[in-house]
UniProtKB/TrEMBL annotation:
Homotrimer. It comes from Alectura lathami (Australian brush turkey). It comes from the Eukaryota. One of its GO terms (biological process) is response to metal ion. Belongs to the CutA family. PANTHER family: CUTA DIVALENT CATION TOLERANCE HOMOLOG-LIKE (PTHR23419:SF2), DIVALENT CATION TOLERANCE CUTA-RELATED (PTHR23419). GO terms for molecular function: copper ion binding. Keywords: Signal. This is CUTA protein. Residues 1-17 form the signal peptide.
């Protein structure tokens, strides 16, 4: 049971260790922030979802990229459509909450919510994300 608890607590403990390291050294720790990708059927849905993300303070910044073509397999068939892509800049610790929120409101049966950690960047911009996305 102790091992199970340790495994379950690892992400929380790692996050706290990274925050402590950044606070003590004043340096950016790779992976503290992330960019999430969310696909949307059309521009209105994209704007509504982006507004919801911002209203809930789940991100500091959301880009709404213009319509693009998409090819994908759905229920065994090759599909082709157009989509609008959201790029969401947030704390990595908020990705789970962001994903849950998107799944609760998105019209797609299985919405795309994937994220990549930010390795490096403009320290002032990364700090700005930090200031605009509450920790809890």
């Amino acid at each position: 049971q102790v091992m199970t608890l340790a495994v379950l607590m690892y992400p929380v403990l790692r996050s706290l260790a990274l925050q402590l390291h950044a606070a003590v050294t004043g340096s950016y720790v790779s992976g503290t922030h992330s960019i999430a990708f969310i696909n949307c059927l059309n521009e209105q849905i994209a704007k509504d979802i982006a507004r919801g993300i911002m209203d809930k303070k789940l991100a500091a910044y959301v880009n709404i990229l213009p319509r693009s073509s998409a090819l994908y397999f759905w229920k065994g068939e090759l599909e082709e459509s157009t989509e609008i892509l959201l790029l969401v800049k947030t704390r990595t610790s908020k990705i789970g909450e962001l994903s849950n929120y998107i799944r609760s409101i998105h019209p797609f049966e299985i919405p795309e919510v994937i994220s990549l950690p930010i390795d490096q960047g403009n320290p002032l911009y990364l700090n700005w994300i930090e200031e605009n996305v509450p920790r809890n």
